[in-house]
Design goal:
Layout: E1 2-3, E2 13-14, H1 16-22, H2 29-39, E3 44-45, H3 53-57, E4 65-69, H4 94-107, H5 118-122, E5 125-129, E6 134-135, H6 147-159, E7 166-170, H7 172-175, E8 187-191, H8 208-218
Parallel strand pairs: 4-5, 4-7, 7-8
Antiparallel strand pairs: 1-2, 3-6
Length: about 230
């Protein structure tokens, strides 16, 4: 792990494996800006130490799919550093409810997954938001901090991996990153966003999980074990 060069950022460390895969220092100025806001008394999510959770749980060598979100949940107790996920015991936000609903329809089964989605992250699904912090109650408030420079670096690392990777792009924001992906080698599974505003416009019925596995097989890649249960050991 590479410590950040500021005492005020002591709770955040950028994973060494990602630094090495990038071949260049990660662009961490957005984190410094977010932490300055936290020091000024603003409530910033995710909490200290959780901003890079997705990268810690899913190092580059293990990435088999990228599920791309926009920015963290902006209400207390929800954001945990994994796109779309919330801590165990937390009420599911509407987007995650819709993901679970589509999951159940896709597999014709009751969703057994924990809402923290760590089962997916630990076996190769990078749950990445393009913006990694947010101010409480203000969705999109950190879109101007420059996070996209860092997360585009991360997406380029995933695109450069030697094995097929599936990129699940839900909504226009995620689909705007499609140009970073070499679709001759990788898989793109695009659909409307699972939010209540757009889920009925094509997310429901898109079968993103079985579609991802089918297309990974066609590329010679390993399918994702989306149906892991909370009792699975890693």
């Amino acid at each position: 792990m590479t410590p950040l060069p500021s005492d005020s950022l002591a709770g955040e460390e950028f994973p060494r494996e990602w630094v090495e895969a990038m071949g260049a220092p990660p662009f961490l100025e957005p984190l410094e800006r977010a932490e300055r806001q936290r020091a000024q008394g603003k409530t910033i999510f995710p909490p200290p130490g959780a901003v890079f959770t997705a990268l810690r749980l899913t190092p580059p060598r293990r990435v088999r799919a990228v599920l791309l979100g926009q920015d963290p949940y902006h209400e207390k107790g929800q954001a945990m550093g994994l796109a779309f996920a919330v801590p165990q015991g937390t009420k599911l936000p509407p987007s995650l409810q819709n993901i679970m609903r589509e999951y159940a329809q896709d597999w014709d089964a009751t969703p057994p997954l924990r809402p923290d989605l760590t089962e997916w992250a630990r076996q190769g699904v990078l749950l990445l938001n393009t913006i990694l912090t947010v101010e409480e109650g203000k969705p999109g408030s950190h879109a101007h901090l420059g996070w996209q420079t860092l997360t585009d670096q991360i997406l380029r690392v995933c695109n450069a991996l030697p094995h097929p990777v599936a990129f699940l792009l839900w909504g226009k924001h995620a689909q705007g990153k499609r140009s970073l992906i070499d679709e001759s080698r990788h898989v793109v599974v695009a659909a409307p966003h699972p939010s209540p505003l757009s889920a009925f416009r094509g997310f429901f019925g898109s079968r993103p999980f079985t579609t991802t596995n089918q297309r990974l097989r066609e590329k010679g890649g390993r399918p994702i074990q989306w149906t892991l249960t909370q009792d699975t050991l890693f």
